[in-house]
Write a structure and sequence with these properties.
Number of helices: 20
Helix content: 55-70%
Distance between the termini: 66 Å
Strand content: under 5%
Structural class: mainly alpha
């Protein structure tokens, strides 16, 4: 009967065994062994590496180190979750714990499923490790020996292998150049992946499918780099240094180069389906964070690490979530969000006018609108009729972000 059980039931039974915690470690150890054996054999270097045994450890060590680095980065999420919970619980006895934003932050932290060596993440971790370890092992072992590029290869040679007048030396050089471009695309995708993993961990936005995404993205980047190498002439790129740069940038942003190649192909066959962008004069402003009071470049960089790259994004944030991840006072963060809400409402020019009369946040604006005399001056600076003050009040009171932020601000006043 045991043989008739489903794979899911068998996996659940294995997890309940006392030695289940060592299963992921054993799988990773097996992956390390497989990638080393397969990598050396696949690139045709077994005899050469066995004859020079000193090269074997160095190739594998490089591959294993770069393969394990993203996994080790992911494993810190468990510690991060505990620290966030501890900091949030430190204010549980205060009135702000009854606000909507606090409850939402509490639920968000409690629902985090950290990236650990469990059933959900073992397979993605192994696949990610195999890709990175094999890639760096291949780069480190193959490129130093140009003899590996003598044989004609469709991916490395492209249409060049069909040229009758191309001698072996020229073909070898061309294929080695293609390998360099593809290798740099792989390195670029690796740099992008590590940066994005850190950003996702900071935002508690890492899932098993994310790791599969980075694996597929790296493969696409390598293929795109090879195509760019073979079609460089059509883009007017002859310089070797430019190809190296494009190879690395392709790894960072393969989508842009795929779109560029598609547009070039469509123009060649006279197939056009894209629309023009709106005129510059009617496009919305970028709403940069630097416009917010007290947001220096260092603080803007810290917010950018959390995915907050504009005042529009900051205006809709939960202050507790930001407070948990940044070493700033909760009241200061609430002021930043309130200033961002004012900025997104009135834009740059009007924001400066309101600052000159002491209106620094959305709360100041709401307070002035409640006073008949002050409302006239505020409406004048905004550029609307004084009779529109009541409509502005209704507009603010119906905005969920403003209402929830005001609840936190009022609770903080009660706390003091």
């Amino acid at each position: 009967m045991a043989l008739m059980e489903s794979p899911v039931a068998l996996w659940a039974a294995v997890q309940k065994s006392p030695s289940a915690k060592w299963l992921p470690v054993a799988l990773l150890a097996l992956a390390v062994s497989l990638v080393g054996a397969f990598g050396v054999d696949a690139i045709g270097l077994r005899s050469r590496l066995l004859s020079t045994a000193k090269e074997v450890p160095s190739c594998l060590i490089v591959g294993v180190v770069f393969g394990l680095l993203p996994i080790l980065i992911c494993l810190v999420q468990t510690v991060t979750r505990k620290r966030l919970q501890s900091k949030l619980d430190s204010v549980q006895s205060f009135p702000i714990a009854k606000t909507v934003y606090y409850v939402a932050a509490k639920s968000s932290i409690d629902s985090i499923n950290p990236a650990t060596l469990n059933a959900d993440y073992v397979a993605p971790f192994i696949i990610l490790f195999l890709l990175n370890a094999f890639g760096f092992t291949l780069i480190y072992a193959v490129y130093p020996d140009l003899d590996n590029f003598k044989a004609a290869n469709l991916i490395l040679g492209g249409m060049q292998i069909l040229h009758a007048g191309l001698d072996d030396s020229a073909r070898q050089t061309y294929q080695a150049g293609t390998f360099v471009v593809m290798a740099l695309a792989f390195v670029g995708s690796y740099v992008y992946m590590v940066g994005r993993l850190i950003e996702r961990l900071s935002n508690n936005d890492l899932y098993p499918i994310s790791l599969y995404f980075y694996v597929v993205r790296a493969v696409i980047a390598i293929i795109a780099a090879a195509v760019i190498r073979h079609t460089a002439d059509s883009f007017g790129m002859q310089s070797a240094s430019l190809l190296i740069l494009l190879g690395f940038i392709t790894g960072l942003a393969p989508d842009l180069f795929i779109v560029a190649m598609a547009r070039k192909a469509f123009q060649t066959v006279k197939v056009l389906g894209s629309k023009n962008d709106p005129p510059t004069m009617v496009r919305p402003t970028a709403l940069p964070l630097i416009m917010i009071d007290d947001l220096t470049r260092d603080k803007v960089d810290r917010l950018s690490e959390l995915g907050i790259d504009s005042a529009q994004v900051l205006a809709c944030q939960n202050p507790f979530v930001i407070w948990l991840k940044l070493p700033y006072d909760l009241g200061l963060i609430v002021d930043w969000i309130a200033s961002a809400q004012l900025y997104t409402l009135v834009k740059e020019n009007t924001l400066q006018k309101l600052r000159n009369i002491g209106v620094l946040t959305i709360f100041d604006l709401r307070c002035r609108l409640d006073n008949t005399d002050a409302a006239k001056q505020v409406c004048k600076e905004i550029g609307v009729a004084s009779t529109a003050s009541s409509a502005l009040i209704v507009q603010l009171d119906c905005a969920p972000c403003f209402v929830r932020l005001r609840q936190v601000r009022d609770a903080m006043v009660m706390t003091t």
